[in-house]
Amino acid sequence: MKGKIEIITGCMFAGKSTELLSKVDEYNIRTLFVKPKIDLRYDESSINTHSGKKVDAIVVDSLAEIFNKLSDFHLVAVDEAQFFGSNIVEHCLKISNMGINLVLAGLEYDYLHNRFESMTGLLQIADSVKYLTATCVKCSKAATHSHRIVREKSKILVGHQDFYEPLCAQCYSKNV
């Protein structure tokens, strides 16, 4: 039997990591938590929510690194999925074909509203997708965009409220 692939996405501060941990609680089965090495915002070895909840996680560059650890697990929970390469799609399909469910949380778009390739692929193979919104810091409408508030131009800048703010589409278009 194939495992399900569930995706949680939305802009920054939409509660993706919180929803990931809630979804794991709903499953109530043995879970392997995974995060990318690039995510050092709170600490190196746990998934953290902005509200302070945290859970220990395996830190990897690629989901291929967890294949030999899967025999004891029925669910794989991945945070910050956008930071994995496009091969995450084939790795998730392989895990799903082993009968293991996956729940992945990540940004669909970067701060310039360009898609992350890994998330585009994951959305195409997902059995279900949950889209979350934050609250726009300018007008309080539903925010769907991550707006970078520092002048760094690199595509990847891992950070939180010191670097980004959530904006609705209208406020985003005024500020970019």
Describe the structure.
With 176 residues, this protein is of the alpha/beta class. It has one domain: P-loop containing nucleotide triphosphate hydrolases (Rossmann fold). Helix content is 22%, strand content 27%. The protein is built from four helices and twelve strands; from the N terminus they run E-H-E-E-E-E-E-H-E-H-E-E-E-E-E-H. The chain has helices spanning 16-27, 88-97, 117-125, 169-175; strands spanning 5-10, 31-36, 46-48, 54-56, 58-60, 75-78, 101-106, 128-132, 134-135, 142-143, 145-148, 164-167. A six-stranded parallel sheet has the order 5-2-6-7-1-8, sandwiched between helices. A hairpin with a 6-residue loop joins strand 9 and strand 10 (142-143). It is globular. The chain starts with a strand and ends with a helix. The mean pLDDT is 91.
